[in-house]
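Summary for the steering committee. One of the milestones for this cycle was to obtain a three-dimensional model of the protein with nicotinamide-adenine-dinucleotide bound, which we needed before selecting residues for the alanine scan. The sequence and ligand used are listed below.
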Amino acid sequence: MAEHNIPENLPTHLQHFINGEFVDSLNGATFDVQEPVSNENYATVASAQPEDVDRAVASAKDAFKNGPWSTMLPRERSRVLHKIADIVESRDEELALLESYDSGLPITQAKGQARRAAENFRFFADLIVSQEDNAFKVPGRQINYVNRKPIGVAGLITPWNVPFMQESWKLAPAIATGNTVVMKPASYTPLSAVLWPEIFREAGLPDGVFNLIFGSGSVAGDYLVKHPDVPIISFTGDSSTGATISTAAAPQFKSLSLELGGKSPAVVFADADLEAALDATVFGVFSLNGERCTAGSRVLVQREIYDDFVAAFAERAKNIRVGLPSDPATEVGSLVHPNHFDKVMSYIEIGKTEGRLLAGGGRAEGFPTGNYVAPTVFADVKPDARIFQEEIFGPVVAITPFDTDEEALQLANDTKYGLAAYVWTSNLKRAHNFAHAIDSGMVWLNSNNVRDLRTPFGGVKASGLGREGGYRSVDFYTTQQSIQITLNEAHSPRFGADDAAKIDA
Ligand code: NAD
């Protein structure tokens, strides 16, 4: 077996980054962070308290009001963003090592995330220089136009799955549009975030535009959400946390974007290209250790191909290479944290009473320690089963048969979530009609999850609120003020004019 690969120069203490400086919490508070192979502490991390959040927000507010960033020409901001993308790309290897070490993601999949992070910056660097806004003319009377403005300090709160990429997804549009930010990464996976300050400094981002705080959701996250100087919150994480944040932000009418959980269906019709569907559905639920918001974690299969498809699926699952995250041969690594491992294992136990276990079913063989879960397949799962309804966020799939299109649609829509869906069929009409009828923010037809950065990303129902991606991100991170100019006399009804004095011109 390959050796556990510990990145060189691993920091043992991580600090906040506020106003261009690395700092500890004012009261010295810290928390410990573990890596998921040994579950041993590898670093202490500064833990932000309200006074630290205040400092970070004050820095971002000052940079927004007084710094050059928010009023810079888009071309100048774009140059900085392109440099960020270049630097991220040039540090691809190092970044992937840190990410894989901290989160347990297989190294080959971590490399893909670093490239996507760079692409996010390049995309918004290009978008802001080609940005156009509406102008409207009422001939001879009025011209009206949209004045798009950055909003101010954006609070960015991110989850522990693919952390660096998730962070880039929010950072790139937030700063591209001229806002300043306070970002709070998830406390399970703080490591890769410490690269941002260096990358941003080298690219020429002014101090104070980017502020980073580490800390718990309930203290630092909650305080950031409620902070009166933070008018925008972009959050990615669990649906129940999203509900808490939504309530906390409501009294101040903040702009809110919530990207939440999922229990996405992958629907396989008998007329599909079954090899392609098998590759995609296996990858769809087991890639990124199954810790993927858009995982196709419910596979719905048409009855006439059900037995064969399920048998082939289970065979693939049994052959998946579980291993050290740093081993390039590994397909499924170690789950992020022992608490999450326990959660996934408890769902597997529930599953044993709800479905027919065909692969996996517990800790991966040969891994007595670490958070290794064997890729697990349950077939014949009924729609009222908890493993059909609830997000497990690990390498566990529920497979269910269907007979007709109507039944497939009902099963597909029968959860509280609505993030993604995948449909496999060679019938064009069915593909589109079925896609239109699914309650989900995104549908992939005959494809696994391939993102086009121009398309809207987000969910319906308990999977989220709002859309980011392409122009939707620009819309979210800016305010659109409409300006009206009269070209003619101002025609106002003359209230109180009869006996009132006139202005001597
Ligand atoms: P989580 O909700 O536990 O935590 C996410 C972030 O919110 C962390 O930084 C956490 O510290 C913070 N937080 C927790 N409580 C908070 C509070 N009261 N106020 C403010 N911040 C708070 O989620 P997680 O376990 O880190 O991530 C996994 C979840 O994220 C899964 O449900 C997954 O589906 C979802 N996810 C969704 C998407 C998407 O785009 N829809 C993408 C990735 C992950």
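Key point for the committee: The first strand starts at residue 13 and ends at 14.
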